[in-house]
Amino acid sequence: MQTHTAKRIEIVIEKPLEGRLTDALTKAGVTGYTVVPVRGGSGRSGPWTREGQVGRAGMVMVICLIKPERLDALLEAAFAVVERHIGIVSVSDALVLRADRF
Amino acid sequence: MSEILALAGANLVSPIILSFALGLAAALARSDLSIPEAVAKGMSIYLLFAIGFKGGASVAAHGLDATLLMAVGAGIILSFGLPLLAFAMLKILTGFSRLDAAAVAAHYGSISIVTFVAATSVLEGKAIDAEGYMVAVAAAMEAPAILSALWLVARNGTGRAMEPGLMREILLNGSIVLLVGSFVIGMVTGEKGLAEISSFIVSPFKGVLCLFLLDMGLVAGRGLRQSKNVLGLGAVAFGILMPLAGASIGLAMGVIIGLSTGGVVLLMVLAASASYIAVPAAMRVALPEANPAIYLTLSLGVTFPFNLTLGIPLYVALATLTVGG
User: pTM of this prediction?
Assistant: First the structure.
């Protein structure tokens, strides 16, 4: 089956920042993304879990797939939001079936 | 003094406190007991709706007076002013950075609605009436403290412009909208409206509160377990002294504006409690460099249990001694 190269960006960020990040991505021309809740993990501040979080605390992961040539614009927009905050931004190569959707 | 101790003793063996203690003990013992997140959210919506509605219905029954405006004004002044006191105390008692101290201070100017709900439940148990509009005072005290904290940071030149949309998020956060909205519904529909739904919002109230506090105990216990090395002795002392200082100021203001004994208790509780829902979310946006483990552990792990177990009975006793009742 015909596949096309794409970039998969995963951004783990604090829940209160979710709206700001997705707004920035939309303004940068991203046409689609997926937000998933994060159950827990461990980082520089030690282990943490979603249990024990109250209110809008906790983390979410925003995943988007884009054409490789749009990567820089997306990263600039995302980093403007993420820069001061706890989080992880990672980029990996991916293959998609329907290139026109990204 | 013996009266205060007797009151505290009676409070400690209430189902509400014991439910909280169960959750706390289970979390500290690393039990896998947990309340599903959606259930906890549902219970908090129920409690906010019930407390707002009952407050509005009480205002409809007893009418509005000038004390309402003075009480809301006092609440706003407290919320703006308490962070300044908290900040000064933190500078003396702890070695926190300016940012961490300002973030903690914001929590202590704002309020814990669960502590407020627990206090109203204790007052009901003792048949002490309180002004229904204290719910509106609670809502008014949520946000001003955040502005004071941002000012404390900006004063030093380390602050930045407020994030666009942050003020709207603070003022329209779900708990404020639900509390004020149900208060208005209660006020509009009055005693008749309350009678229609009392089997839902009055009778099960304490049972739901017990379960909710079981969850709060679990949350507080997990927080304490994860952040056991975050707080020093000075910070823990602050977590106990600050509510006492806030409650004393609340007592004075409540007496000056002429609140009833129950109203004074609730103003003391509001001044003594620290936020752990609205303000942490705002701080993550406005002051992300501040350490959340410090302010959440202090607010939820030290001050909340203190107010729930010893603070509320102490405030009831002091208000009763001062105002009578």
Answer: 0.84
